[in-house]
TrEMBL record:
GO cellular component labels: cytoplasm
Secretion signal, residue range per the UniProt entry: none
PANTHER family membership: UDP-N-ACETYLGLUCOSAMINE 1-CARBOXYVINYLTRANSFERASE
The species this protein was found in: Sediminicola luteus
Domain Enolpyruvate transferase: 7-425
Binding site for UDP-N-acetyl-alpha-D-glucosamine: 97, 320, 342
Keyword Cell division applies: yes
SUPFAM superfamilies: EPT/RTPC-like (SSF55205)
Family: Belongs to the EPSP synthase family. MurA subfamily.
Cellular localisation: Cytoplasm
Protein name: UDP-N-acetylglucosamine 1-carboxyvinyltransferase
Domain of life: Bacteria
Record's keyword terms, sorted: Cell cycle, Cell division, Cell shape, Cell wall biogenesis/degradation, Cytoplasm, Peptidoglycan synthesis, Transferase
């Protein structure tokens, strides 16, 4: 179990550049299986989950060439589908949540897709029904081995159809979409998720020869094509990292520039932070956050009632930023209700923040009320274990703002999604060591 030691209470200063988006990378990498031609991808983050997926592609026989930092060419012209039935795959295939999106492309191109129960954050129930219901609608047969937790779909031919997803699942939409692009006829996916991750995937698939309409909306129409070709693709900056660095700047009252954020793809994120009293200035494509010497004040609603920050499917606020927002609120002026609608085990990490002196009431597994200290009282350093990726980064931010030296164990959770984090934080003045 890896550990960070963090000496808190120091102001940071300078510029930080967000990595390529983790959740986009996981979709885009799976899409390379849809063609036997070369696909070159840039701005791939060097993080544990993405590297695990690249290894899985390699094990499947995909030829991979590193072109430079974050740039790789993939060629899936000799895929070894036998690997999917191997004990090795049953072990490694579930190492991350994103591997579930291997199924759609494999099904479309080779008539079969298998996957062990995928990993990812342990943040509550994370079902896969939407994915498999979609494949069955396209004509696949489905089987599930309950003992081995092994899922499988097979189809000689996929046929386009209309489907209304039971939930706007991000990975589910990507998975079904990647199957539908090679299906016969037209597929309509209603209640599709439409995060920038998915918009990027649609754009990439269209460049490969797919015919997808409705990109960016919750109604996708896909006219199946016989074959897809190669392309080149560049990942957007990671919006969750961007939100994390905003939270970091606020909590440590630091002046920070976040470089090349792709403002037009941030949706409501900037306005949510502004509601929490954070000043964000747009400078070209950078976000400039001035020092919040006088703290930051949470806005109330027009009628004076307490602000609620809740997640919602895109274009609502991504649930992946709520833990970070919660931590930030512990030092705000005012109160806020954080409502994590989606995952039922994601707020339990607040216990640690309470130990550190934060004023939080966990109302139920989905809701926490935070009463900010307005920097009149500093959080106290402590020892903690990172339960999931976003709680991990939130605890790290809390530790960087706290008085004294904190220890965070199980930092592998943070490494799943944040590239070379301690070096990047050290470069802006953080006192952090990996033990
Ligand atoms: C590898 C990957 O891409 N993981 C992301 C993906 O997981 P993943 O694709 O596993 O999660 P799903 O999108 O399937 O989420 C399940 C359900 O929660 C609903 N829902 C979603 C967002 C929301 O704010 N409120 C809500 O209730 C969705 O509509 C869906 O019904 O999407 C999640 C939701 O954005 C993110 O937390 C994960 O980081
Ligand atoms: C929940 C997340 O990731 P995953 O779906 O990969 O577990 C996340 O990135 O916050």
């Amino acid at each position: 179990m890896g550990t960070f030691k963090i000496e808190g209470g120091h102001q940071l200063h300078g510029a930080i550049t967000p990595q390529g988006a983790k959740n986009e990378a996981l979709q885009i990498l799976c899409a390379v299986l849809l063609t036997d031609e070369a696909v070159t991808i840039h701005n791939i983050p060097d993080i544990v989950d993405v590297n695990k997926l690249i290894l899985l592609l390699e094990d499947l026989g995909v030829k991979i060439q590193k072109k430079g930092k974050g740039s790789y060419t993939f060629k899936a012209d000799d895929v070894n589908t036998g690997y999917l039935q191997s004990e090795q795959f049953k072990k490694d295939g579930g190492g991350l949540r994103g591997s579930i999106m291997l199924v759609g492309p494999l099904l479309a191109r080779f008539g079969m897709g298998y996957i062990p129960k995928p990993g990812g954050d342990k943040i509550g129930r994370r079902r896969l029904d939407t994915h498999f219901e979609g494949f069955v609608k396209l004509g696949a047969t489905f089987r599930y081995n309950r003992e081995e937790h092994f899922y499988g779909v097979e189809a000689k031919e996929l046929k386009g159809t209309y489907m209304l997803l039971d939930e706007a699942s991000v990975t589910g939409t990507a998975n079904i979409l990647m199957a539908a692009v090679l299906a016969k006829g037209t597929t309509t996916i209603y209640n599709a998720a439409c995060e920038p991750y998915l918009q990027q995937l649609c754009k990439m698939l269209n460049r490969m020869g797919a015919k997808i309409q409705g990109v960016g909306s919750n109604l996708l129409t896909i006219e199946g094509v016989e074959k897809l070709g190669g392309t080149e693709h560049t990942m957007l900056p990671d919006m969750i990292e961007i939100g994390s660095w905003i939270g970091l700047a606020a909590m440590t009252r630091s002046e920070l520039t976040i470089k090349n954020v792709s403002w037009e793809n941030l949706g409501v994120i900037p306005s949510v932070f502004r509601k929490l009293g954070i000043t964000l200035e747009q400078k070209g494509d950078d976000i400039f956050i001035p020092k919040h010497e006088d703290g930051y004040e949470i806005q109330n609603y027009i009628d004076g009632s307490i602000l609620t920050i809740a997640d919602a499917p895109w274009p609502g606020l991504t649930p992946d930023l709520l833990s970070i927002i919660l931590v930030m609120a512990t030092q705000a002026r005012g109160e806020v209700l954080i409502h994590q609608k989606m995952f039922e085990s994601r707020l339990f990490f607040v216990d640690k923040l309470i130990d550190m002196g934060a004023k939080i009431i966990l109302c139920d597994p989905h809701r926490a009320t935070v009463i900010g200290h307005d920097f009149k009282s500093q959080l106290k350093a402590t020892t903690m274990v990172s339960p999931d990726i976003r709680a991990g980064i939130s605890l790290l931010i809390a530790a960087l703002s706290a008085k004294g030296t904190s220890t965070i164990h199980n930092i592998e959770q943070i490494d799943r999604g944040y590239e070379n984090i301690e070096e990047r934080l050290k470069a802006i003045g953080a006192k952090i060591v990996r033990l």
